[in-house]
Hints:
10 helices; 15% strand; Rossmann fold
Amino acid sequence: MKIAILGSRGRLGAALVRKWGAAPDGSGEKPAHEVRGFARPELDLLDPATIDHCIDESFEWVVNCAAQTNVDACERQPEEARLANTIAARRAAERCAKTGARFIHLSTDYVFDGRQREPYDEEASPSPLSVYGQSKADGEFAVLAALPEAVVARVAWVFGPEKPSFIDMLLSRALAQKKVSAIADKWSTPTYTEDLADWLGMLVAAEAPGGVYHLCNSGSCSWRDYGEHALACAAAMGLPVKTTKVSPLKLRDMEAFVAERPVNTVMSTRRFTQLTKITPRPWQDAVRDYIRDFPPC
Length: 297
C-alpha cells in the first residue's frame, strides 16, 4: 500500500518510515509498503494549505504523527497548540475524507485528568488538565467528526531509537554521574516505537474499524520505576553506568513545569486486543530489548 506519514522526523514517524518502508525480512528487497514521509518545511501544521499538498489521491492510508507535544510550550502558546493539535488534525481528516484515504491520528494519555485509579479504557471520557491535553482531546473529536472511520490511537511515554526520550537522558546521566533522580508519584505505561509500529501495522492490515484505540505496552510504572529498570538492564548488559538507583522526586516540587500534569494515566488496550487477539508485551521487556538493540553511545 501507499502510505503517507505526517511528522516523519519525530520519534514515531521516523520509526514508521524505517520499519514500514523496509522489506519484511530485512533483506533489502521490495519493501512492505510504499511509504512517503512529510516533515518541515514541506509540512507546516500552522499552514493548512501544506497539509492539503501532502495528502493526494494516491495514498491509501495517512498516519498523522505530527503535533506540538511540548506540554509547557502549549501552555504558554495556546493558539499555536490549537492550530497544530486541533485545526491541523481536522484538516488532515477532512482531506482524507475527500481523497478516500484511511486515516490514523496519534493522540495522548494527557486527554485524561489522571484521577482514576483503574486503567483508562477507550470509552473513558477525556477530561484534560492542560492546554496540550485539551488541544489533543479537541483534535480527536474533530478528526472523528470529519471522518468517523478514522482511527485515533492514544499512546503514552513513547521511547525509541529515532529520537532521545526520558530513558536515553537518564542513561546518559547515569553513565556520567553517581546520582540521578526522577518523579516517583506519576504513573503511566511506556510505549516502545518498535512495538507501536507493529501494532499500527496490524490495524492497517485488519482495516480496523474507526474509533479510539489505546496502544501502549502492558503494565504500569512511575518515572522512577521506569528509570531504575532501564539502569538495571544497562548494568546487566555490561554498560558502565555509575548507579542503578534513582532518587525519588515529587511531581508537586517540579517548579519548572508550567502546565499541570495528570498523575495516573495507565491505559487499557482492551479494544486492540479484542480486534487482534494480541496483548502488548510488558513494558519491562520492551525497555530491555531497546537497551540491548540500541545501546547508548
